[in-house]
Amino acid sequence: xxxxxxxxxxxxxxxxxxxxxxxxxxxxxxxxxxxxxxxxxxxxxxxxxxxxxxxxxxxxxxxxxxxxxxxxxxxxxxxxxxxxxxxxxxxxxxxxxxxxxxxxxxxxxxxxxxxxxxxxxxxxxxxxxxxxxxxxxxxxxxxxxxxxxxxxxxxxxxxxxxxxxxxxxxxxxxxxxxxxxxxxxxxxxxxx
Length: 192
Known about the structure:
alpha+beta, globular
């Protein structure tokens, strides 16, 4: 699945729903409208995102919930399994090494979930002080890198143009007739 497929799958309305779930969880965490569940804010935030997703997404006929160990997977249009997690500034999620995580990173089927799903992560990227949300991302991870990342706020506002993929496209992956441009990370300030 290329990034444009992800944009088409989620759509502007879906992006608004997913981003709203993340923002509502952040607000609930910081306004004290809910109790603390654990010892870490990230874990509490993850729990609040899952609670919000249960309340909002499960009313949609095209979303189904699967529980795998302690992870809530929201299967969207029988195509993608979405989990709610924080993202680091580089757009990756932090995960514990496990057999299940290896399957997710390799985009291989997870026992107990329908086959042929892609695995996506949805969640906030916090600013450097962790006092506000700088982005809300939907990401598809391949190995130790994201194949693509969609800024859900931009998609919710109607921007449906794909970003440059974090991984270079190889000729075998490119759509027929596509121009292949090498991926070059932006230079940091002061680099030559």
